[in-house]
Amino acid sequence: MTELEGTIDRITYYNEDTYYTVAKLKLKSGNPATVVGNLPPLYLGEVLAVKGEWVEHKEFGKQFSVAEWQSREPSTAIGIERFLGSGLLKGIGPATAKKIVKEFGKQTLAIIELMPEKLTQIPGISEAKAERIAHSLSEHAEIQQIMVFLQGVGISPGYALKIYHTYQSEAVKVVKENPYRLADEVHGIGFKIADQIAQKLGIQKDSPYRLRAGIRYLLSENSTEGHLYAVEEEFLARVGNELEIDPLQLAGEIEDLIVKKELYRESHGGKNILYLAPFYHSEVGVVTQIKNIMDVGLPPIVLDVDGLLEQYSAKNKITLAEQQKEAVVKALENGMLVITGGPGTGKTTIIKAILYLFKKAKLNVRLAAPTGRAAKRLSEATGESAKTIHRLLGYGAEVFAGSRFQYNEDEPLETDALIIDEFSMVDLLLFYNLLKAVTPGTRLIMVGDVDQLPSVGPGTVLQDLIESGCIPVVRLNVIFRQAQESLIISNAHKINQGEFPVLTTDNDFFFIEDGDPEHIAQTIPELVKVRISGYLKCDPV
């Protein structure tokens, strides 16, 4: 790597969140250099030694990309005056800096560090102010020492700053004692980075800190594949392989994590299974919340349901199928209801019909969906306001009773009924937070296609609800006339039922047989830009 040293002459850009900086460095030769990278707050006049590489920016030209840096105290009187007057030290502005340097010259920084009481010789500097100035300089020096140590064990400048801001003066102690804390407590640093740091510090592979962190990490990785738990015997073999450790060495750490309630062990199908605490509490909590909702008797809704459905059908010029009427009736009668069906089976029509009757019953109804796009489609289809589930629950940076959701068991949603569309995308953790905000006595209607891909997060919530037999379910399998005209929809149902799709070329479903990967890559853009956009009569962009 190339090394440069110079004085900070100008700070062009600084991002407080990412620490990304663009600054002008005046080199010892007098030439300027633009330095870029994740750096701490810099100050005019500060001497900076950097390591990195020269890069060519398309718009701004030659720049020096910083990989490592170290702040050095300025040695000239002019440099010291600029450094002190930059705002770095509390209690010193440009005017005071000029007076101090005039009095003490090149010895200024040594005086502040070792004999701060001498600063009281300067008019306007009291003993208290002198102490504040000395403390600020000491703090700045401490930061530099910490940053040098962190970069020395392979931590990038950006992560080093995050670590310092998390632990302050304890940063070096924390990293030396247990670098695996970083994976849990510093955003962006996962187990693998923490493990690399630990290896550079000489921490043994069988360190209890490493084994416990590795167990938590791999169980968390397991959840990214959609799993809520892992079979213990299989999981220990995987951990041993990943951490290059004899699985027998893991037993004690598993027990320790269970005692600390970071892991939970259950028996399932004759095998021991392991949960991370959040997933265990969510699964148990979901069962409890469902029982609470289903056990509460709902006040009867006195309506002429048949008459209102006829009125709704006539108004919208549609004919409701028996399955759809059944769904509407069950939505009125039950605390929880699942409505599932493939494309073209009239799920949106049912939501609108349920809304119609709920309004006739003077019920307050809220609509939501897992994603912004799904919420927008629901709003457009019903003409009613719909939100994402996160927004409905008031998700934000502020913590409410240990949760980032404002609405929960302590502050539930105020509504008589809640309809969630595209429910197949809801994972277990989100469902648990939703249920905590639903008061028993509220009607919860969940609409989705159980045959769609499950949620990205852990759990197959919709499928599990249907298979549990604890909640009323209406299955829609009738494809309506307008949907039947689409081969995409009818073929989707055929494939789902194990039947061979119709492969004609005179509709909206095309099958193009091609064994050449390069030709396929060329064909897809043409299909999107020309054929599909032409068929749909829309701009391909």
Task: Give an account of the 3D structure.
With 541 residues, the chain is an alpha/beta fold. It folds into 6 domains: 1-72, Nucleic acid-binding proteins (OB fold (Dihydrolipoamide Acetyltransferase, E2P), Beta Barrel), CATH 2.40.50; 81-152, DNA polymerase, domain 1 (Orthogonal Bundle); 153-200, no CATH class; 208-280, Winged helix-like DNA-binding domain superfamily/Winged helix DNA-binding domain (Arc Repressor Mutant, subunit A), CATH 1.10.10.10; 296-478, Rossmann fold, CATH 3.40.50; 484-536, no CATH class. Helix content is 45%, strand content 19%. The chain has helices spanning 77-84, 94-104, 108-114, 127-152, 157-167, 171-177, 181-185, 191-200, 208-224, 232-243, 251-259, 277-295, 305-316, 322-333, 347-360, 372-382, 389-392, 428-436, 461-468, 481-484, 487-496, 517-536; strands spanning 2-14, 20-27, 32-38, 47-57, 61-72, 229-231, 263-268, 271-276, 336-341, 365-369, 386-388, 395-400, 403-405, 417-420, 443-448, 473-476. The strands form 4 sheets. Strands 11-10-14-15-9-16 form a 6-stranded parallel beta sheet, with helices on both faces. Strand 12 (395-400) and strand 13 form a beta hairpin. Helix 1 (77-84) runs antiparallel to helix 2. The longest helix is centred in the N-terminal third of the chain and has 26 residues, at 127-152. It starts with a strand and ends in a 5-residue tail after the last helix.
